[in-house]
Each structure stands twice: as structure tokens, then as C-alpha cells.
Write a structure and sequence with these properties.
The protein is mostly helical. It has 12 helices and no strands.
Length: 300
Amino acid sequence: KLLAWHTIFMFLTGYIVAKGVKGGLEKAVKVLIPGLFILLLGLAIYSFNLNGFHDGVRYMFIPDLDKISPDVILSAMGMAFFSLSIGMGSLMIYGSYLSRESSITEVTTVVALSDTFVAILAGIIIFPMVFTFNLDPSSAGPGLIFQTLPLAFGVMPYGEVVATLFFILLFFAAITSSISLIEPAISFLIEKYSFSRAEATIRLSTLTWFVGIGTLLSFNYLSEATIFGMTFFDLLDNFTSKVMLPLGGLLMAIFVGFIVKKRIVIDELEMNQALFNFWRFIIRFIAPVAVTLIFINGFI
């Protein structure tokens, strides 16, 4: 069943990618993502009335400073890079589709704030349910959503209908994320090797399908097979979140801060001089140093 769903997922992703960003992804996102957001708001209202709401909010917003370590910071940074699609160049590719009338500064600010708001909203939904149904909030990681929400859907009015709509929309939200991950490679093959979009999509989707099989088998048949003490899935997860994404972000900061001409950056960002000087100082000196230090700590 997992293999069948994996194949369907990759087929839909490849189909939308082949249609192009404007012809495929943009049309899908305009309908599906607002629907998912409305469902999230409804679930947040539902969580507000649960017995574990206050415990969940306290767990989420009151930090335990003793548990903050370099590894935690690195994981959080990797999650930020992944969530905002920074390290793999997705936002950079999407930015190339913006019209000249669009402000890069305004768009990126909206993206960052929206991403943060949805993440907080998801936490407000999940953690009250965790404490209401006496689950361990630290046991399942990202998979916690598949433990808590089914329990909530089972007891709420019209839960089966809400659950069906939610997981269908979540499925398509995952597809849009997959498209954002593969689009930089698609654009690279088209521009560098003159592939058609369809040919580039088929090649990369096939490669991704085979890699995805390895991650699926990591949860069953290959669960005992480890590389450096990690399953194939854990190896990819750690390598991408703790190595590739921070390294990609570091290289982008260096490229924009030191290689791209200052006048080009000013023209693209359209900031006032004071704000630009502050941004430029951070992108040239603060960001690279901070990312490098956290990156090194991940291997100590």
C-alpha cells in the first residue's frame, strides 16, 4: 500500500511540475492551500475547548532552557531552512517568476510571517490534543499529527468528514512542497542541458521515486539495515537538515553578500538605505558566522 501511495504521489507531483509553476502549481495552490488554512482555523477553535488546552499552550510557549543544546539549535535551524525552502533554493527559483512590480522584500516578509503563523497555529491544534488524550508530546516528532488528529476526529461532530477533507488537503499540501523541492533541479536541467520540461520532470521524478522506495523500506523491511547507526530515512533526514540545508543557506548568504554587485542587490530589494545597510551587515557577517558555528557544533 505504501508503495502504491508513493507511486501515486510521485505521479501527481510530476504531472503538476510538467505543467509548470504558473500552469500547474499556482492553480493548485490557489484552491487547496486556502481550504487547508480554513480547516486549521476550525481545528484551532476546537482545540480551544479541550481540557488540555492550557497544558498544551504552556508546553508550547514556556521554554525549558536546560534542554536547549547546539543539536537542538541546529535541528531548529534546519527546520527553518526546510520550512521556508531556503537551503535548497526553492524560494530563489520562485522569485525568478516574480514580475518587476513585485517587491522581493515585501514578498519574503509575508512568506516568513505566514509560515511562522501557520506553524504556531498547528502547535495550538496539536499540543492541546496531546495533553487531552494523554499522549507523550516528545515521542512521535513530526508524526505526532497522525496520532493526535485521528483521535480528535474520532470524537468530534462530523469527524469522519472533517478528517477526510483535512488529510486530502494535507496530501496536496505535501505535493506542493515536493514541487518546490524539485523545481530548482528541473530549472537547472532545462537551462543547463536544454531539456524540455517534460523530459526533465520524468528524469528527476523517476530518480526521486527510487530514492523514496528506500525511505519507505526503512520503516519495515530495511529497518534493521543501518548506515552509521541510522536507517536510510534517518540518514537522508539528518544529512539534508543538518548538512545540506545549512550549507546551502551559508553559500547563498556569501554569494549575495560578497559576490553579487551591491547596486544589483539594492535595485532588487528596493529598501531604504538604513534598512539595506542593516540587512547587508547581517547577511555578510552575522548570518555566515552563526550558521558556520552551529554547523560545526553539529559534528562535535
